[in-house]
Design a protein that fits this description.
The protein contains three helices and five strands. With 157 residues, the chain is of the alpha/beta class. A three-stranded mixed β-sheet has the order 2-3-4, covered by helices on one side. The chain has a two-stranded parallel sheet with strand order 1-5. The longest helix has 19 residues. The mean pLDDT is 83.
Length: 157
């Protein structure tokens, strides 16, 4: 048989990313802000600040960049503003979507991302509506397994 140390983690996953000087921790700003949203949500759940919050959470932050064109190449690339914020969070069944969206924006998004937001920022806060069933019970599909795909710092065309 195969040696235990030659075996994989027993789960399937795909991660793509890179290091950058956009943040002090060398992570892309999009990743850093999305992670900070999750951390703030976790803290709000643990402290009871958002009593309706449940553990299954997804975040995504899209950042608009500015750059100089140097002979057809993008140079001096710098974050300009947050274009959009997505938070999908599991919640208690008795809370309204209006309450969820208002509290996410006021208690999580603005304190975490404030300086990057502007009047054109698009907010997708629980855009699919009710999210009461979460975790493997809600996402595992027919196989009973969940494939994990994470990206950080991905660039669009």
């Amino acid at each position: 048989g195969a040696l235990k140390e030659d075996q994989g983690a027993g789960d399937q996953g795909l991660m793509i990313g890179y290091a950058t000087n956009e943040t002090d921790n060398c992570m892309p700003l999009t990743y850093d802000l999305a992670r900070n949203l999750v951390k703030a949500l976790w803290d709000a759940r643990q402290s009871g600040a958002l009593k309706w919050l449940r553990p299954d959470i997804k975040t995504q932050v899209t950042v608009e960049y500015e750059y100089t064109d140097k002979n057809g190449f993008k140079a001096d690339i710098k974050p300009k503003r947050v274009h959009s914020v997505l938070i999908s969070t599991q919640h208690d069944p008795d809370v309204t979507q209006e309450t969820i969206r208002a509290e996410l924006k006021a208690k999580i998004v603005t304190p975490v991302i404030g300086k990057w937001l502007d009047d054109k920022t698009v907010f997708h806060l629980n855009p699919s509506g009710s999210f009461v069933v979460g975790g493997p019970q809600g996402d595992a599909g027919l196989t009973g397994r969940k494939i994990i795909v994470d990206t950080y710092g991905g660039w669009g065309g």
